[in-house]
Amino acid sequence: GYKNTFAHDISEAAWRIKLGVEKSEFWYVMAYGVRDERRAMKEYNNEKLWREVNPGYGVTVHKRYFEAQMEEIKKRPSALTGFLRLHLNVWTGTSEGWDVLPYLAECPQRKIDESEFDGRVAYGGLDLARVGDTSALVWLFPNGSGDDVTFDALVRVWVPDETLQLRVKEENVNWREWVNSGLIKTTPGNVVDYNVIREDILKDCRRFKLGEPVGIYTDPWGAWSMVASLQEQDIGVFTLQQSPANLCPAFSYLEKVITAGALNYQGNPVFEWQASNVQIIDLQHDNRMPSKKHSKGRIDIISAMQMAFAAYLSSVTQKKETTQRSIYEDWEEEE
C-alpha cells in the first residue's frame, strides 16, 4: 500500500504490537513484510526474502513469476517500486520512486579513512536545516576525468540531540545507532546549531583542496549568514537557486554516475535510507528532479549531493570554455 494513508496507519499500529513496542488485548497480529526499506532495496532479488514475506510462496505464487519480475525491473527500473509494494509488502509513496535505486546496489561501497581525502580536490553541497531538522554536507572527490571519472563521496549529517527520540518513533529508523557509529553528529538542544556546522566546514576546507570556480554550493534559504562568514575566510561557497534550470542538469548527472556504478558512497546507510525516500517529479523536456514535498522522508543528503555535482559541473564547464578560447586564440595567431 501507500504511505500516509489510513491503511498505513493501521499497519504501523499492528507492527508496533507485533514487535512488542505496544500492547493490546484486542489485537492478534499476523503480519508479513519487510520493515527495513534498506534491506528491501538490497535484497529484493533474493529468493530467501521472497519466501520470507510471502507465506503462499511456492503454492499460490511461484519462483518463475518472481524471476519474470526481476527481468522486468532490469528493463524498466521504475517497476521496482511496484514490486516492493505488491510483493514484498513495503509501504511506498504515492508519486514515482527513484528508478536508479537498483543500480545503487552495484556502486562501490569501499570504506575510506578520512585522512586519505587530505589534499584532494573536493566539491561540496550543503543543505541547511530549517530550525529542528537535519542538515547535510556532501563532499565529492573526483577520480580521473572525462567519461571515465568516478567519485568518492563523504557525507556529513547534523541533527539536534533533543529531537532524536521523536525521530526514532516517527521514522522507524535507529538514529541512535547512526550517531553512535559516527555517521551523524548531534548538536546541543532542539534546534540546529549553525556554529557547529560552520566550524566543521572550516575544518574540512583546511584539509581539502576546494574545486574552482565553486567549492561549495548551498540552498540560499537561511544560508546568507553562513555563506558570508565562510566567504570571510576565503572559502569559495556560493548560493544556488533551487530552480529546475540549476538543479536538473546536476541531478541528471548524479543519476548517470549511479547508473554507471561510478559513485563510491562507502556503504553509508543514512545515504541509502534517504535515497529510498526520494520521489521524482517529471518536468518538461524530459527533465526531472527529486521533490522534498512529495518524498517519503528526509532527502537532505540527496539535495546536498546534487548541489555538489552542480559545483563539479561548473568546473567542467569552465575548463571546456578555457580550452575553446585557447584553441580559438591559437587559430587567430596562425591567421
User: Cα distance, first to last residue?
Assistant: 69 Å
Number of helices: 13
Number of domains: 2
User: Roughly what percent helix?
Assistant: 40-55%
How would you describe this structure to a colleague?
The radius of gyration is 22 Å and the shape is globular. Strand 2 (121-127) and strand 3 (135-143) form a beta hairpin. It has two domains: 6-98, no CATH class; 114-321, 2-Layer Sandwich (Nucleotidyltransferase, domain 5). Helix content is 44%, strand content 15%. It is built from 13 helices and eleven strands. By secondary structure, the protein is α/β, with parallel strands linked by helices. Mean pLDDT is 88; it is low at 324-331.
Write the layout of secondary structure elements.
Elements: H1 6-18, H2 37-43, H3 47-53, H4 63-75, H5 79-87, E1 96-97, H6 101-104, E2 121-127, E3 135-143, E4 150-160, H7 164-171, H8 175-180, E5 185-187, H9 194-207, E6 209-210, E7 216-218, H10 224-231, E8 237-239, H11 244-259, E9 263-264, H12 269-277, E10 279-282, E11 288-290, H13 300-334
Parallel strand pairs: 2-6, 2-7, 4-5, 4-9, 7-8
Antiparallel strand pairs: 1-10, 2-3, 3-4, 10-11
Provide keyphrases for this structure.
335 residues, 44% helix, 2 domains, alpha/beta, Nucleotidyltransferase, domain 5
Structure summary:
The protein has 335 residues and is of the alpha/beta class.
